[in-house]
Structure formats: structure tokens, C-alpha cells
Amino acid sequence: MPSTEDVFTSDTVFVRNAQYALVEVRKSKLKNLDSLDSHIIPIPVIEKTFDVNLDKLYADKGAVMKILKEKKLKATICVKRKALPLIPAYSITTHKSQGQTLPKIVIDLNMPPGIVEVASAYVPLSRVEQLTNVAILQDFNISALQVKPSKGQIAELNRLAVLFQQTKQRYAQYFV
């Protein structure tokens, strides 16, 4: 494993217990904030406290769960986590991704309000070669995957089916 000297440049500063990160967003329309340079946005550390149900974590009901039940202890623990809410990413729209094969993707299947198109879920889910290369960003409503085609889309599919049958008859010698 390479040492930190091999990975980071000599001017790298390591900060522990940061309160915020300063992020440059080049296309930001924000004016300068206080004494910060233009396009610099402070992102504060977020602290979250949540309970973890050990019943779900230890589904096999192994030794840990046995001990908890014997001692009549709750099977939940409280977790406090501090983190900078940053995800390095490159994003594109579903429309831009059409026709591309991408190595790995993260998809948000929570659709914006309004009419949901059939392609809204299908296109991004079909951009990778393997299902293991898809990560779904957050829980979503199953209805995002159950969109019915519009009347216009059904008419187009029917038109293409008729065209296919006509082509198949006309060029039967080429169809095996």
C-alpha cells in the first residue's frame, strides 16, 4: 500500500474535526459570501443520531442476539455520526445518458413532480453492463418502475410492429 507521501502532493493539509469544507462551484450564481472568494461555498459538517435495530443487523440470531435476549436488553443501539455531506460526482441527465454504456452509476429513482415517462427509470437502469455496477441513491416508491406507456407511445409501438411484419413479409428470404 502506498504511503500518504506517494498519494498526496506536498502542499496537502490534513484537517481533523473539520467544522466545514470550502467547495468551489465554478458555475455558481451566488455572490461572494462574507470574506470568501467568489464561487466558494462553505458546506457544514452534519451530525445525525439514529437507532440501529440489531434484529435486522444480526438476522441469523447468532450469539450476540442470544446474549441480549438472556439479559433482557434492547436490541437497538444509538449511533451518532458526523460527516461532511459531500459526494464527488459527475452527473448527467437521463436524456444525455441515452445510447451510452457507463462503467458504474448511481441513480436516484425519486422522480420529480409531474408526468413520469417510461424512460425515466428504464434508461438509467440500462446504461451499465452488469447490475452490480448500479447503486440506487435512496429508497424510492415502486411506482417509479411501474409507469405505463402513454397512448402515443403505444400507437408508435403498434406502428413499428406493423412495419416489422410488412418488412418480414417483403424480405422473407432474409429472415431465417
Can you describe what's shown?
The chain is built from six helices and six strands. The protein has helices spanning 4-7, 54-57, 63-70, 94-97, 119-125, 151-170, and strands at residues 20-24, 40-44, 46-53, 76-83, 105-107, 134-136. Among the domains are: 19-83, no CATH class; 94-145, no CATH class. β5, α5 and β6 (134-136) form a beta-alpha-beta unit. Helix content is 27%, strand content 18%. The strands form three sheets. It has a two-stranded antiparallel sheet with strand order 1-2. The protein has a two-stranded antiparallel sheet with strand order 3-4. It is an alpha+beta fold. The chain is extended and about 70 Å long.
Mean of all residue-level pLDDT scores: 84
Determine the number of helices (DSSP H or I, runs of at least 4 residues). Answer: 6
The secondary structure category is alpha+beta
Distance between the termini: 56 Å
Overall shape: it is extended
Tell me the major beta sheet.
2 strands, antiparallel
Radius of gyration: 26 Å
Secondary structure: number of strands: 6
Low-confidence stretches: none
Largest sheet strand order: 1-2
